[in-house]
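Feature request, filed as a ticket because there's no other form

It would be nice if the structure record came with a short human-readable summary line next to the tokens. Right now we just get the raw output. Example of a typical job, pasted below so the devs can see what we mean:
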Amino acid sequence: MSLDWIYFAISWILLTWHSAWDAIGVPVDAVIGTNFAWILAIVFLVVTVRVILFPVFVKQIKSQRAMQALQPKVKELQEKHKGDRETLQKEMMELYRKEKANPLMGCLPMFLQIPVFLGLFHVLRRLDPAKQSKTLYGWTVEQFDSASNAKLFTAPIAGKFGSTADELARLGANGTTVKIIAGVLVLVMIATTYLTSRQMILKTGWAEDPQQRMIQRLMLYGIPASLLISGAIFPIGVIIYWVTNNLFTLGQQQWVLRKFPPPVTAKKATAPAASRNPVQPAKSGGLFGRGKAAPAAPVKAAPPKVAGPKPGAKPANPKKSRPAKRQG
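Raw output as currently delivered:
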């Protein structure tokens, strides 16, 4: 299957934003070693994609809420079908179908962005001054040459951490500078990728479903770890896209999680009541703790207080009140 339609779409959005910033007056030439018109074009490519995918993101949050609401039923099925994994999976799929919950919806926004990422990766990888076919995907020769010379702090956006000496020579770049800029961006990309997953898990909690929990662990640890290696082959422009996308996700998740807060769990619901009334009568017997209250422990009566003599009164002598004993 040809992916040319993706390359044309990504190129069109990128070139449209670059022309817009150029028309607004953003310098096309490098300022502080950076071509801001091209950097902003990549940033607003992210904004365009995320605005288009926003309804999908809201559906993802609602689906996760539905999955959370089903956790008690999922736990019951796990207890009921211990040791019978096949039956458990069938019962859970039936439960999800009946309740219209989709466990894979949590990954849908990420999957939909993969074509965009691959398209941008392909388009930026082509930014080589030695290329003969500069007018592919709707580019003009002038736009191609401008993008080939675009830089971020003197590091070309088409360069990468693993660029060869020949590639760097064609781009007119310094290898050390490219490695430093690319290396810093890769670390930021890893950190922000981890934080986006952590933010969601902290808000929604770990899933009871083993399949869901495995997906959560993959997104929290697996994907950031893989970027440490794969980041070396990403052009700097692609890493800028990824970091911007992560920052957008952090802000969007924070807004959506406030708009659609996670459901209050039983533990959270009972915690305030317990704190307001910490002293409860002990219960004994009865299923689910519904027995009668245990009798309170007997309290020893305090000895009566003896009033002291009034001020100025003569001390009483108890011996005088007793009859004298007769001597035999």
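Something like this underneath would help us a lot:
The longest helix spans residues 36-69.
The chain has a mean pLDDT of 80.
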